[in-house]
Amino acid sequence: MIPYGRQDITEDDIAAVIEVLRSDFITQGPVVPRFEADLSAYTGAGHVVAMNSATSALHAACRAVGLASGGLLWTSPITYVASANAGRLCGAEVDFVDIDPDTLNMDMLILAAKLEAAREQGRVPDVVMPVHFGGHSCDMRAIGELASEYGFRVIEDASHAIGGRYRNKPIGACEFSDIAVFSFHPVKIITTAEGGAAMTNSPRLAERMRLLRNHGITRDAEAMTGTPDGPWVYEQVELGCNYRMTEMQAALGCSQLTRLDAYVARRNELAERYDRRLSGLPLTPVARPGLPDLAACHLYVIRLEAGLAARRRQIYESMREAGVGVNVHYIPVHTQPYYRALGFAPGDFPEAERYYAGAITLPLHPGLTDADQDRVVAALERALEGV
Ligand SMILES: *Cc1c(COP(=O)(O)O)cnc(C)c1O
């Protein structure tokens, strides 16, 4: 089966992990801070807090900006459940902003209109979490302007987007947001097996996230409530979790990061090759931004023409039978049973649902060869003929 996504692990990666295994520290040593420094150098964000997943980082980020019970978070319905769940884990309410069918990102006109209506009703969100679908940045400058106007915090779910660029800066620079979060799950652009990281330019938010990553415990005498009785004293000043990344994960991340630009270049090359090979078929590839923006190209998604959407399942199964690991990203979050139980219903976000009905994700990862890709295209052509 040609998978839709797959990690690329080199001998250098393996050596880096083994070196850590032979060292004094396999957790809480020098490599996690090194990975954080490397991510800071890459993105330009002043502070980086590495964690054991993007889900943890999104949760810690929401808590760091003060999201809590009684609060409200808005995100996209076309995302992995973790984006919305970050709000729910804080005890906050969650709502969604329907997508722009061209980019699959949060629709800026809908966001602006929804904010205006929310202000009239006296309930603007505390946090807006844009999701850079497929590594294509949302219009962050416009979101930043709305954030100043309406007074909400911005946490980017940049899980798909490390290595991408927005207005000539790396995604994750946080020029227009409070925090941006990357995922290092194996299907993402670079991997640490499980892992994630939060970027921010705010020393205060970074400090809060470091505290929340480690049980809310501080060993910094300055941050304690009293004068410590001895050098062994730590104080728990908050309620936190264990969201720490291991040294092995960080070593893998440092090693992977050296190939990030090459990965993104190859992903873009493959995406352009798909565009050319698929033209003329009854489907629309999702648009990518033009320079100076650059998509990290985490996903290559096609939308079947409206008349064919009813046959999506047949096309999907036919491609799977042909050994092509197609997938679907994503089931609209508001239609999940958990969110339906909170009052959401099909029909609430029509663009998201229309997109979902005809969406198929084709394999895209740096190890995909041109020949693999030709097999994917041939299987898709056959599947389309069969319907
Ligand atoms: C993968 C992903 C996450 C969760 O990442 P983990 O590192 O697996 O926790 C969150 N949001 C989006 C959009 C994702 O794609």
Write a concise synopsis of the structure shown.
The chain has helices at residues 11-21, 31-43, 54-64, 81-89, 108-121, 140-150, 203-213, 247-257, 260-278, 312-321, 337-340, 350-357, 370-385; strands at 47-51, 72-75, 93-96, 127-129, 153-157, 165-166, 169-170, 179-183, 196-200, 217-218, 235-236, 283-285, 300-304, 359-362. It is of the alpha/beta class and 387 residues long. Helix 4 links the parallel strand 2 (72-75) and strand 3.
How would you describe what is shown here?
Strands 1-9-8-5-4-2-3 form a 7-stranded mixed β-sheet, with helices on both faces. A hairpin with a 2-residue loop joins strand 6 and strand 7. The mean pLDDT is 97. The protein has 387 residues and is of the alpha/beta class. It is globular. The structure holds pyridoxal-5'-phosphate (PLP).
Summarize this structure as a short list of keywords or feature phrases:
single chain; 387 residues; alpha/beta; seven-stranded mixed sheet; three-stranded antiparallel sheet; 13 helices; 38% helix; binds pyridoxal-5'-phosphate
Portion in strands: 5-15%
Radius of gyration: 21 Å
Mean pLDDT: 97
Rough shape?
globular
Which percent bin holds the helix content?
25-40%
Structural class: alpha/beta
Q: Specify the biggest β-sheet.
A: 7 strands, mixed
What's the total count of β strands? 14
Task: Compute the number of helices.
Answer: 13
- Poorly predicted segments: none
Gap from first CA to last CA = 22 Å
- Main β-sheet, spatial strand arrangement: 1-9-8-5-4-2-3
Which molecules are bound besides the chains? pyridoxal-5'-phosphate
Topology order in helix (H) and strand (E) letters = HHEHEHEHEHEEEEEHEEHHEEHHHEH
